[in-house]
Amino acid sequence: REHWIASIPGDGIGIEVIEQAHRVLKQLEKLSKTFKLHIDTFNWSSNDYLKTGEYIPADGLKTLKKYDAILFGAVGSPDVPDHISLWGLILPIRKMFNQYVNLRPIRVLPGLSSPLKHIDAQDLDWVIVRENSEGEYAGQGGTTHDDTPYTIANEVAVFTRQGIERTIRFAFDTASSRPRKHLTLVTKSNAQRHGLVLWDKIFYEVAAEYPDVKTDKMLVDAMTVRMVLKPSTLDTIVATNLHGDILSDLAAALSGSIGVAPSSNLNPTREFPSMFEPIHGSAPDIAGLGVANPVGTFWSVAEMLKWLGEQEAGEKLMKGIEKVTESGFKTKDIGGNADMVTVTEALLRELENS
Ligand code: NAI
Ligand code: MG
Questions:
Q1: To test ligand 1's pocket by mutation, which of 15, 17, 280 has the most ligand atoms within 8 angstroms of CB?
Q2: In this predicted complex, what is the ipTM?
Q3: 274: β partners
Q4: Cα–chain center distance at 212
Q5: From CA 332, how far away is CA 261, in angstroms rounded?
Q6: In a designed cystine with 252, which of 92, 242, 261, 340 is the match (CB 3.0 to 4.6 A)?
Q7: What are the pLDDT digits (tens) for 68-93?
Q8: Whose CA is nearest to atom 26 of ligand 1?
Q9: Per the entry, which co-factors are needed (predicted)?
C-alpha cells in the first residue's frame, strides 16, 4: 500500500513538531514493510504571506487535492493579524475539502495527570465532535461605518439542516462505536433562538434512529462546569464550531496540557483529503527553543494512519506514545524536563523495540 501525504508545517512550533513527526513516520514505514509513505512538504507560512501577500499559492489547493491526507502543524505569527493567518491557510483547506467534522479525542495519557486534583485519569475519556464547516465561523457578515463612533460589525452564524444533520449523524455513529454509547448535545438554544433551536430539533430526530445511544443535552455555559466538576458523566460530545473549539481547549487542559491533544479535520465521504493537526497554535512564546510538546502531533499522526487504513501502525504508534509518557519522557508543560527531541528519540527507540 502507498499513501501520499501533504505536510504543511506552517509557523512557530508547527515547524518543529512536524519535523519530529516526519522522523516518526519514517520509522514506522521502515518497521512495517506493508506500506510506503510519500511525504511532500509545503512550506506555506506567515513569512511567505509577508513577502507575497498570500499563504496558499494560486494552484495550491488543486495540488493538495491529489493527496490522501494532510498533516498540519500550526499557523500564526505576531507579525500578521490572527484572522488573516487563520483565513489565509487553515480555514480555506477545511472548507475547500469539506472537512465538516473536527474530531477531538481526549483522555489522560499514562504518566500524566489532570491539573485538577479531583480528576482521576479514568474519569476523563471523551470524544468531542465539533462541526467544522459553518456556524459561527461561516465568515459571513461585514462592517459598516468603520472608524466612526457608529461602527457596526455583523458576524453572521450560518446553520443549515444539511450541515447540522451530517455532523450529528457522525456523532451518533461515534458514540455508538464506543463502550458507553452516550452522547451529549451542547447548544445555547435558550439565547440563540434560531440556529441552535434547529440543532436541538435535528438532534432528537436523528436520536430516534439510534435507540442504543443514550443522550442528554447541555447549555454550553453549564457544560463548562460539568466538564470540570463531573467529567466521568461524559463520553461523546457534539457541538457547534465555536462551542466545540472552546470546549476542546478546556478539555485538553483538563487532560494535562494543550500540547498533547490531537485533532482530525475529516471529510467523512472521503471525496477529499482529511487533515490532521495538534489542537495547539504556533506558540510564539516558546518557538525556536526546542521545548514544544510533540505528543499532540504524534497522536494526530496516529489518527491519520488509522484514517488511511493503517490500523496496526496507528495503534503501535499510540502504544509507543503511552510508553514514552509513562516512562517519564515529558516536556515542561506536562511536568517534565525533557526537550522535544529527547521525547521524540525515546519514541523512536520504543517503536524499534516494540
Ligand atoms: P497556542 O496554542 O499557540 O499557545 C497557548 C499556550 O500554550 C502558550 O503558552 C504556548 O506556549 C503553550 N503551548 C501550546 N502548544 C504547546 C506545546 N505543543 N508544547 C508546550 N506548550 C504549548 O495558542 P495562542 O498563544 O493563543 O496562539 C498563538 C498563535 O497560534 C496565534 O497566532 C493563533 O492564531 C495561532 N493558533 C493557530 C492554530 C492552528 O493553527 N490551528 C490554533 C490555535 C492558535
Ligand atoms: Mg482552538
A1: 280
A2: 0.98
A3: 69
A4: 27
A5: 15
A6: 261
A7: 999 999 999 999 999 999 999 999 99
A8: 281
A9: Mg(2+); Mn(2+)
